[in-house]
Write a structure and sequence with these properties.
single chain; about 270 residues; alpha/beta; Dihydrodipicolinate Reductase, domain 2; 2 domains; 10 helices
Length: about 270
């Protein structure tokens, strides 16, 4: 007699554009073997109203209440809450899918916790084309990684780096380069914008050696990333235009990337590194 596989329970912390999109998909059952069980959001009342629109009811809880309800936590919240969200899951040897990957650079204790307990921190591909190629290249020697990001000015408004340096992106009529530096500096200065370059850096030669330019560009409609990699196994370049979600700082493909990662957890046939 064959037993029915136990479903993977998933909780979502954060109900912005990505969290809502993901919750809607999971509640609708788009990933066989995965069930949405709980969500958490800053505004409890709005969250309660939102979950009433889902295909099946789920719990609305505080961040510190989520762990008993799920096997996997998906973090879709502001970066400052990363530790509070994933720490309880890592301590219980569970999985944490992290979207605020830039924050990981400044919380090495969380990576160490995962190593000690057997928990797992997972970073989805998100808006980054070619991440598999980068992971493979890193098994050899990578000579250089450079990235140029162009975003509509509205998608960069409020970034700490712009505020600290008195850079205005309002009313631009032509592209303006607002940043040149490495991935670690970008993660600090643009915490809501540059998770993509941090993922690239962590897959490759590290945040100190991964360099980028950021442009506020009124001529582009979508977030655009151009990446050039030189390694001993391959030289490759790639450009990706991401259609924004309801939040102009985040691409629509991010939620779909999380769905794909969850699907891989239950799949018996997997394509990709």
């Amino acid at each position: 007699m064959t037993s029915t596989p136990k479903k993977i329970r998933v909780a979502i912390a954060g109900l912005g554009a990505i969290g809502k999109s993901l919750a809607t998909k999971l509640a609708a059952g788009v990933v066989p073997g995965v069930v949405l069980t709980a969500v958490s959001a800053k505004n409890h009342d709005k969250a309660q109203a939102f979950v009433k629109t889902l295909a099946h009811p789920v719990e609305v809880l505080r961040i510190d209440e989520l762990e008993p309800y799920a096997d996997v936590i998906v973090e879709c919240a502001p970066a400052e809450f990363l530790g509070d969200i994933i720490d309880p899951f890592l301590k219980k040897q569970k999985k944490a899918i992290v979207l605020s990957v830039g924050a990981i650079l400044f919380r090495p204790d969380l990576v160490e916790l995962a190593k000690q307990t057997g928990g797992v921190i997972m970073v989805p591909t998100g808006a980054l084309i070619g991440l598999d190629a980068m992971v493979a290249a890193a098994e050899g020697k990578i000579h250089s990684v450079r990235m140029i990001t162009r975003k509509p000015p509205k998608g960069l408004e409020g970034a700490p780096y712009l505020i600290e340096n008195g850079i205005s992106v309002e009313g631009l009529t032509e592209p303006l380069k607002v940043f040149t530096g490495n991935a670690k500096e970008a993660a600090k200065g643009f915490p809501a914008n540059l998770n993509v370059v941090v993922a690239l850096a962590l897959a490759g030669i590290g945040p100190d050696k991964t360099f980028l330019e950021i442009w506020a560009d009124p001529t582009v409609r979508h977030n655009t990333h151009t990446i050039t990699v030189d390694s001993d196994s391959a030289k490759f370049s790639m450009t990706m235009e991401n259609i924004p979600s309801e939040n102009p700082r985040t691409g629509r493909i991010v939620a779909q990337s999380v769905v794909a990662m969850l699907r891989k957890l239950t799949s018996h046939f997997q394509v990709g590194t």
